Amino acid sequence: MPRYYFNVALPTRVIIDSTGKELAGLEAAHWHAVRLVWQARAHLPDDGESWVIQIQDETRFTREVFVPCFKARARAKSHDKKSLSGRARR
C-alpha cells in the first residue's frame, strides 16, 4: 500500500508529517484528511481559511490540498436556527 503524508499548512509555517500513513489510495487519503480535520479543529483556527491539509504521496508530491470549511457550516447552523425559530412563532 502507498504511504501518504498529511502536512498542516498555516499562514506562517508548515507542520510536516514525518510519519505518514499507509492507505489503499488517494480516496482513502482524502477521508483520512477529513478525520484529521475533525481531530484538529479544537486546536487550530476555525475560520477554514488560515490552514489547510496537504496530502502528499510517497515521493512528497502534493496530490491534494484539503481545505476545511467551518465558516459555511457555522453560517448554515445559524440560518437553520433562525428559520426554525421563525416557523415556531407562526
Main sheet? 5 strands, antiparallel
Shape summary: globular
Task: Tell me how many strands there are.
Answer: 5
Order of helices and strands: EEEHEEH
Q: Which structural class do the helices and strands define?
A: alpha+beta
Assembly state: single chain
Proportion of residues in helical segments? 25-40%
Total individual domains:
1
User: Roughly how many Å apart are the termini?
Assistant: 57 Å
**Count of runs of 4 or more consecutive helical residues:** 2
- Portion of residues in beta strands equals 15-25%
Using the CA coordinates, give the radius of gyration.
17 Å
- The overall average pLDDT, rounded, is 80
Q: Which residues sit in consecutive blocks of at least 5 with pLDDT less than 50?
A: 72-84
Structural description of this entry:
This protein has 90 residues and is of the alpha+beta class. Helices cover 39% and strands 23% of the residues. It has helices at 26-40, 70-89; strands spanning 3-9, 14-15, 21-22, 52-56, 62-66. Strand 1 and strand 2 (14-15) form a beta hairpin. The longest helix has 20 residues, at 70-89.
Write the layout of secondary structure elements.
Layout: E1 3-9, E2 14-15, E3 21-22, H1 26-40, E4 52-56, E5 62-66, H2 70-89
Antiparallel strand pairs: 1-2, 1-3, 1-4, 4-5
